[in-house]
Amino acid sequence: MLLECKNVSKNYGRKKALNKVSLEIPEGRIIGLLGKNGAGKSTLIKLINDLLVLDEGSILFEGKPIGVYSKEHISYLPERTYLDKTMKVSEVIKLFKEFYKDFNEEKALKLLKDLDLDIETRINKMSKGMQEKLQLVLVMSREASLYILDEPLGGVDPATRDYILDTILTNFKEGSSIIISTHLISDIERILDDVLFIDKGKIVLSSSADSLRKKEKASIDEVFRRMFKC
Amino acid sequence: MLGKLIKYDIKWINKVMVIYYLITFVFCVLTRVLSGFSDNFFLNIIFYAVRGMAIACFANVLINAIIRCWARLHTTTYKDESYLTHTLPVEKKTLYNSKIFSSIIILVMSLVVIIICFLIGFMNQGLAEFIRDIFRDKDLTFVIINLVIIVLLELIYMLFCGIIGMIFGHRYNDGRVIKSVFVGFILYFSVQFILLGLIYSVGLLSTDLNALLLNKTTDIINPMGTLKSFVLLVVGVYLLFISLMYLVGRLMYVRGVNVE
Questions:
Q1: DSSP designation for A122
Q2: What ipTM describes this predicted complex?
């Protein structure tokens, strides 16, 4: 098993963000982590990436606790721009090359060329959309075992959504898994192998995408809407 | 990995510090140039203004060096850039060490810049003679060098108070900034009092040191020896507290952080 979460809990003060969440992520799957805003998707992803301290439970990557080994093999795209904006694109590429053994510089340069992005441009001179694309290129240029993409489609136009999905699908390492967290289900449901529905800090449904569609005789988007109707 | 992290930290901090170093340098050069026109009334007024600015720049360099180091820790540990920092395949203690070592390097660098700029702007025959006299006397040289070390240790100690305050304050979900500042201040003043008490207690065991602390210098049998012991004691106590604060900070940092 690539990733195992066992009884994971996280509180923000009195608010329970995650409540004894258990899940397993096998190799070679594209998994949609789906839930409303504030359901606990980002908290779970942050815990997997060592950005928050666990209150309870354990998270294992290939049987090892989250740490240097997992970070060498997990490529993470956060929902915000995390690069030093005073740096040039070429400097960021150098940084990734220095720290990540699995970073494929050639692939990154090719993808940036496709975007018509001059690598001597400073990040603070780029539009927000372009900064997000740069981050996606950096993340997908790693030969990782697990890609975790937190809201990669949030706040972008439909054309950019297509670019993002295309970049993800054509660049991830064969045999690796992808976790995509989003509430924009209709845009990504065609690429999903499995779905995890999360609500109020709990996994409420875990299924393969095809069997769910067959069982409910509806698209995943429709199932989601029915389940979380306000 | 530690070297690479330090390189990126220093580069980030120095993007601003280099500007302050240059401004300080320019004012010190102007002070030196204008000091040669003391007989001209207007140039003399400008000289005093520029000299004042040069001295203000010294304080500015030190204050900003500490603030930039804190800002680096804050942005890369808790703000947006922390999403990259904590997902680098590097141990937490290495991340912590990089912040600490890069900050100390910046403080040393700032102190060196200040000393060089001071010599450029303020060196005159009287001062040169004074420095020569100091270096002729081995004991005095020892005391002066240790006083410079104490200034550096005080800066490092202030830096650590801020760092520990920040790490402690950010363990909470609400009011992180206020808690960070509060803990930092409390730590600074409480350790200062402990430090004074500790030095005074040690002073009670030595008649000469006691006389020095109570400003009864005429009662001291061996003044230079006592002064040497005193500065060594202060250096030792500072090192002890800084080491303790380093370990506490590391322990808290390694336990993990909650990014914003």
A1: B
A2: 0.91
- B94-106, pLDDT tens digit by residue? 999 999 999 999 9
- Check pLDDT > 70 for residue A230: no
User: How near does any CA of chain A get to the CA of B12, in Å?
Assistant: 9
A52: phi then psi, degrees, rounded to nearest 5? -135, 160
Length of chain B: 260
> For chain A, what is the domain count?
1
Query: What confidence score (pLDDT) does residue A133 get?
Result: 87
Closest residue in chain B to residue A11, using alpha carbons only: B173
Strand partners, B21: none
Best mutation target among B87, B179, B253 (most A Cβ atoms within 10 Å) is B87
CATH number of the domain where residue A15 is located: 3.40.50.300
Choose the mutation target among A81, A82, A98, A149 for the interface with B, i.e. most B CBs under 10 Å. Answer: A82
Q: Inter-chain contact B256–A53, Cβ cutoff 8 Å? A: yes
How far, in Å, CA of B102 to CA of B70, rounded?
11
pLDDT value of position B233: 86
Task: Count CA atoms within 13 Å of residue B147 on its CB side.
Answer: 8
- Check whether B159 has a pLDDT greater than 70: yes
- Whole-structure pTM value: 0.89
How confident is the model over B183-206, as pLDDT tens digits?
999 999 998 888 888 878 877 777
For the stretch A102-108, contacts whose Cβ atoms lie closer than 8 Å and that sit 24 or more positions apart, written own/partner, are A102/A72, A102/A73, A102/A75, A102/A142, A102/A143, A102/A144, A103/A138, A103/A141, A103/A142, A103/A143, A104/A141, A104/A142, A104/A143, A105/A141, A107/A140, A107/A141, A107/A171, A108/A137, A108/A138, A108/A141
